[in-house]
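REQUEST ID: PR-0412
SUBMITTED BY: lab tech R.K.
PRIORITY: routine
TASK: structure prediction, single protein chain
INPUT:
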Amino acid sequence: MTQLLNLPEVVVESSLKEGRVLILSVGKKQKSALCPHCGQKSEHLHQNQRCLVKDLPMGDKEVILNVNRQRFKCKKCRKTFIDLLDFLGVRKRYTYRYAEYIIKQVISSNVSNVARNNGLTNEEVKGSIQFWKIYHLWENVKGNNPVRSLTMNQEKQERIKACLQELSTLLYEEADKSKLTDLEGIEKTVRSQVLELVSPEIALFLSNKKQEQSFGKTRKIKSLVGELKLKAKQLMRLGLKPRSRLSPLLQKCCLRLSANESYQKAEIEIEALTGVKVGHTTQQKLVLEQDFQLPFAKQAVSEVSVDGGKVRLRGQPKAGCHWRDYKTVRLQGIYYGTFFDDNQSLVDYVNSQRLVNPLVCLGDGHDGVWNLVKEFGKSENFERWEILDWYHLKENLY
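STATUS: complete
OUTPUT:
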């Protein structure tokens, strides 16, 4: 059975048949492992941990491996670790070759069919695809020495600790001692010092393009690792847009906050969460620069949901606020579009899709919604089935 399974350095300890399922209990032949922390070989078994994972089917039998993941304890550094298996990722419920088996099916079919044929969910199939991409990337990077690739050696770790100790002493000398009385104060002080003095230097060093750092005009870029001073060639190589003053990741954080808060509140939140200050006017400009394209349905649209509401806009100081209408539409339950004070654009957007006749239209019963629905699919003999949603149906009945 071990030869039939054909997994390197693995032996089948026992087998069990349950209908069309074959359960194989497997373990590694070698009873020792290299410590990923210090590289020392360890034979001291600390614990046996078993987990069930899917593997390639054998004929018409689904194969489940009952894998013994051995945890060792290193006598040198006194740390425990799980022995890595060449055929199985950490915390994964399927082997590498099973993931490849799924990928090959997706290439010739689609996610839904593969999930149905293999008794998986769509999310599990998509997870297999992503996992396989990461595995191949890791295989290309790690080289021939897994211990050296996974962790740095003990000498480098000691050097880093010594440098950090010296750095901590210097930063403490420059810190405001009155702010170090509680943990929150220490957190804020350390974060501000790291963003100002430490992480920008590390980020610039990791770019590893020293020959490009002495040419071109310098531009200051706000980022999640502090303020970076980059040259023109560096900016081009790193993919920053012209005249941009925010790093791509910081821009994404600002956009996520601006989608849920006012620009003024987003300014407060981004500084509280990252320690980087981005003004509310900068955040508004960033949003206005975005070109948000409406999604186009890949399939024919048979179902449309329309709803509306009001949004409160602030006016000038002491002038109060005012309310404006917006409408939103959902196609096939997966494509969304929102329109602010622009009903005609909503109608044009829906009519630009491939609409099924008859078209099922779901609404809340408001005249403004049904008036929009009447404009959908305005062609001869086009039918619309207008349905009142359940919540508003009960509200009108009771």
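NOTES: The longest helix spans residues 183-207.
REVIEWED BY: pending
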